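Hi support team,

I've been running sequence recovery on a batch of backbones for a student project. Most finish fine, but this one hangs at about 90% for roughly twenty minutes before it completes. I'm not sure whether the input is malformed or the queue is just slow. I've pasted the structure tokens below so you can try to reproduce it. Let me know if you need the job ID as well.

Thanks,
M.K.
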């Protein structure tokens, strides 16, 4: 594990981890446990599976009475919600999706069921809404389980910047939180909005570009592939090499990478010359893998 300067702060040889979140990271040493930012194992590795902490709780899988069930622990490893679920998702906006007998519902942080188990699929709450699927169609509910947008779409995204992508007659457009179609379905594919822009591909040549929340093309359709904006920059594929553009479409880091991920806390994970590396927003390599790192 490295810091933002590329300095190794934890040298562990651990092969499986989740992301650092809320000061802790899940790691696998036989079973899953949690390290702090000093590399200390503060929650013992006793879990079959787990997810990163979110809103003070982490989803974990344990064997209870010969059954494998999911529950939630706090920062000290104490069980806060008893493992009784067949599946689960991390907490978001005070609620977590959990599965019982193949159906999904929601609980609060006290473990009280707030939305009954009746959905085939669900996604975490975002901006007060959760995407749910029932009968093969997607819609949105609020915290109380009330339909805000009735299930009628073959596929939908998550609300971001007040808009969510939907499929209408096999093409992608966007609806607002009232369910009104505000950006026409003129795209072969679309990603959720991020930082005011959506990565979309056109219907004709399948090239990728970016639109704003008004549906206006702000970065033309010329990329073979791309990623959503993060921290003011987006990775794009040009002639089989990845580089980065700013929100005006200007190339700010030359396309020289075999792979390129989103920027997070000022660093992006890339592959260059067959090796993984982290770069900063000026394209400087702050860390590159070597045999000594393992």
């Amino acid at each position: 594990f490295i810091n933002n300067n590329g300095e190794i702060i934890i040298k562990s040889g651990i092969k499986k981890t989740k992301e650092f979140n809320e000061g802790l990271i899940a790691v696998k040493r036989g079973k899953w446990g949690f390290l702090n930012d000093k590399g200390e194992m503060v929650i013992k590795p006793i879990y079959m599976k787990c997810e990163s902490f979110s809103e003070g709780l982490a989803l974990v899988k344990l064997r209870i009475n010969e059954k494998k069930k999911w529950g939630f622990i706090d920062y000290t490893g104490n069980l806060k919600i008893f493992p009784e679920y067949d599946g689960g998702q991390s907490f978001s906006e005070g609620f977590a999706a959990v599965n019982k007998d193949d159906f999904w519902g929601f609980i609060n942080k006290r473990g009280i069921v707030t939305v009954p188990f009746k959905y085939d699929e669900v996604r975490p709450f975002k901006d007060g809404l959760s995407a749910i699927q029932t009968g093969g169609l997607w819609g949105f509910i609020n915290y109380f389980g009330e339909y805000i947008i009735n299930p009628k779409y073959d596929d939908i995204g998550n609300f971001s910047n007040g808009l969510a992508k939907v499929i209408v007659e096999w093409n992608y457009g966007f609806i607002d939180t009232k369910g009104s179609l505000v950006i026409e379905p003129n795209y072969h594919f679309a990603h959720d909005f991020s930082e005011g822009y959506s990565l979309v591909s056109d219907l004709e040549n399948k090239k990728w570009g970016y639109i704003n929340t008004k549906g206006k093309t702000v970065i033309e359709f010329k990329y073979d592939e791309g990623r959503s904006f993060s921290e003011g920059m987006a990775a794009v594929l040009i002639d089989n090499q990845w580089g980065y553009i700013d929100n005006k479409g200007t190339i700010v880091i030359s396309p020289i990478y075999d792979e390129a991920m989103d920027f997070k806390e000022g660093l992006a994970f890339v592959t260059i010359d067959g090796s993984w590396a982290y770069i900063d927003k000026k394209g400087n390599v702050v860390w590159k893998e070597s045999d000594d790192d393992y």
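--
Follow-up from support: It reproduced on our side and the slowdown came from queue contention, not your input. The chain has no helices and 29 strands. No action needed from you.
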